[in-house]
Input
Amino acid sequence: MDFKELVAGRHEYAKAWKARKGGKVIGWFETYFPEELAYAAGLLPVRILAEHEPDIISDKWIYAACYPVKDMANQLLLGRMDYIDGFVNTEGCQWMFNVYEVATNNAPQLFKHYLFLPDYTESKSSKDVLRSELDVLKTRFEEWLGVTITDEALDNAIEVYNKNRTLLRTICELRRADKPVILGSEFMNLLLADQVMDKAEMNVILEQFLAELQAREGRDMVRLMLIGSETWDSKLEELIESLGGNVVIDELENGTNYFWNNIYPQEDRLMAISLRYLGRNNHPVKDSNWRRRPQRIFELAEDYFVDGAIIAKQIYCHPHGTDNYEVWKILRERNIQYHYFERDMTVPKEETQLHLEAFMNMLRAGITRLVGWHNKIEI
Output
């Protein structure tokens, strides 16, 4: 299962899907986008991913933004995603909204929709507000495509997506083992592929992959947690692995937050979808009231027996920039060692490798912890 190859071939996959299914492709940016609604309409939801490559034209449209946003604009303006028939932007990162605006302003023939999702997700009225917003999006899809999104279609979409999340969590649970059978780079490529493929087709691949994992032998490596801004490839995880470490868990928007909770079916399908996306693990933008994110990070660190954490913040990432002080605080209070750094368009390999190597040497058995402290002890 070469998930990295699936990610690299995502454009060809989407074009082949359109030719095979005769359907349309909808592009999305934020993981709060309700994919089930698009899937029920017969659309292929595809996440817009950034690349590590020189940017040649985006400065004309977006200035002083983070590299992923500028790179997305660069790709869209170069026509690399000309198979996409429309875009939906969900309220979240304002830089992402800028990409959405650039893409749709330069291609007015595309379907476009802005979906408001309350920042105060715990408010008593938030579920009703989002349910109303979903109803508007449902109507717009129906008018655009000339179809009726039935309850049966919504039920099927919810079932497919719930199965997908369950499979992802099952695979993720295998990372809790003393010697995980899957590396962090492989799991990240798996998630990125999951976000650009038809979920029904991906579910078949995941079931086959689970069977493959049963025959593997695990490896004993320094156990790390990855925190911070969204990632767009597995280069950082691969660098960590080359130094003897393994990312056994993450707290990223396009990582565990993407699949952690299911939809609980109910008669009002749109309300069920609304409750799922409001109840998911929060991005810093949506975690401004109760600050639940730091406690979740600590719980994941405990559950996956991490030796230390790496916080990788994207330069110009304001949501994580304002949230990091709370994350640092709880890691210090719980005596969890961490290494913090910022990255730009590319990760400078030599400098990053030197810092990570020093950090992992500090974590190795016999220096800051007992040998095998996270192993199960049989009496």
The chain has a mean pLDDT of 91.
